[in-house]
């Protein structure tokens, strides 16, 4: 997240969606590492000063011309656009590993829960801060975080109190897969992971991500049926005999772009 101390603005949301929509279908891209620039923060969340000047947060209820229904419609459309931009990370066909460091507040949690894998440096501080600015988190954290960690009690604890929690706690509850001493080490490990995934069959990788995401939001029976339909087409790939032949010859397989 490359803005002042990780504070995102509307242009960044739109650029983020455009970027991930492009990467999703780029044949030369097989995996993605998402990290923050600078040393202090991945993202500090909402730019409160900017938001306070926005029409979505600054209503004059004493104005007789104020119309609540029209204001609500504007906010709903704005939120839907914002949600869609951040969800582009989750929709991306390519696996995404999110490498966090420093302050990771608010939108930083929204973004990271869209990723497939999360790791962080030891100095990372997390928080779902929205209740401290008088609102419920509305870009994805409350919908995705419970499914990521599988612990509603813990999610309600951190969401209702807006308390800061560290890397060790994030690892303990399963929010991150691993913790590294420094940011640069975390990024190196993220690149290693992405390189390993990129060496696999892109047909198999895309199918695995798609089925896992679908099954997370559906019943086991629905997931099994979807897997069967997906693989009825995907198993016609040349990648299966290529992988088997390479394994028998104890060689590293090479797969075509997808």
Structure description:
There is one protein chain. The chain is α/β, with parallel strands linked by helices. 52% of the residues lie in helices and 11% in strands. The protein contains 11 helices and 8 strands. The strands form 2 sheets. Strands 1-3-5-8 form a 4-stranded parallel β-sheet, sandwiched between helices. It has a 4-stranded mixed β-sheet with strand order 2-4-6-7. Helix 4 packs across helix 5. The longest helix is centred in the N-terminal third of the chain and has 24 residues, at 68-91. The two termini are 28 Å apart. Residues 1-5 have low confidence and may be disordered.
Shape: globular
Major beta sheet summary: 4 strands, parallel
Question: What is the number of helical segments per DSSP (H or I, 4+ residues)?
Answer: 11
Spell the H/E element sequence. Answer: HEEHHEEHEEHHEHEHHHH
Helix content: 40-55%
What spatial order of strands do you see in the largest sheet? Answer: 1-3-5-8
Tell me the radius of gyration: 20 Å
Tell me the β content: 5-15%
Supply the helix-strand structural class: alpha/beta
Number of beta-strand segments: 8
The pLDDT mean sits at: 91
Helices and strands in order, then pairings?
Elements: H1 10-25, E1 32-35, E2 41-43, H2 48-52, H3 68-91, E3 96-100, E4 103-105, H4 107-114, E5 117-121, E6 125-127, H5 141-149, H6 152-161, E7 165-166, H7 167-172, E8 178-180, H8 183-198, H9 202-216, H10 220-234, H11 239-248
Parallel strand pairs: 1-3, 2-4, 3-5, 4-6, 5-8
Antiparallel strand pairs: 6-7
Helix pairs in contact: 1-3, 3-4, 4-5, 9-10
